[in-house]
Specification:
mainly alpha; 5 helices; globular
C-alpha cells in the first residue's frame, strides 16, 4: 500500500472517530502515524494534535448546524480547553515520551472502560 493511500485511510479513520465520538481521532491517528509513517513518538504526538484540530472543527460545524449542542454550554469548556492547550503545548517538550505514552494510554483505557460500562 502506498504512503498516500495509508495517509488517506488514516485520515478517514480519524475523521470518522472524531465525528462519531467527539474528538476521538487521536486514538486512531497516533498509532498509525507511528506504525505506518514511522514517525518518532514526539513528532507523532505533535502531528496528531495538529491534525485533530481541523477534524474537530469540521465535526463541530456539523453538530452546530444540526442544532445539537447548546452554544451557551460551549464557552466554559472552550475557555478551559484554551488554558489547558497552552499549558500542554508549553510543557510538551519537557515531558518525557514515556510519560506521554502512559498518559495517552490511561486516557484511552479510561475512555474505553467508561464507554463500555456507562
Amino acid at each position: 500500500m502506498t504512503d498516500k493511500r495509508k495517509n488517506q485511510i488514516a485520515g478517514i479513520a480519524g475523521g470518522l472517530a472524531s465525528g462519531l465520538f467527539g474528538g476521538g481521532g487521536g486514538m486512531i491517528l497516533l498509532p498509525l502515524l507511528v506504525k505506518w509513517r514511522k514517525l518518532e513518538d514526539r513528532k507523532a504526538f505533535a502531528t496528531c494534535v495538529a491534525v485533530i484540530l481541523p477534524m474537530c472543527c469540521v465535526s463541530a460545524v456539523v453538530y452546530l448546524w444540526q442544532g445539537r449542542p447548546e452554544p451557551a454550554l460551549l464557552w466554559p469548556y472552550l475557555a478551559g480547553g484554551v488554558v489547558g492547550g497552552v499549558i500542554g503545548g508549553m510543557s510538551f517538550e519537557k515531558v518525557p515520551v514515556r510519560i506521554l505514552k502512559v498518559i495517552f494510554g490511561l486516557f484511552l483505557l479510561y475512555g474505553g472502560v467508561r464507554y463500555l460500562l456507562w
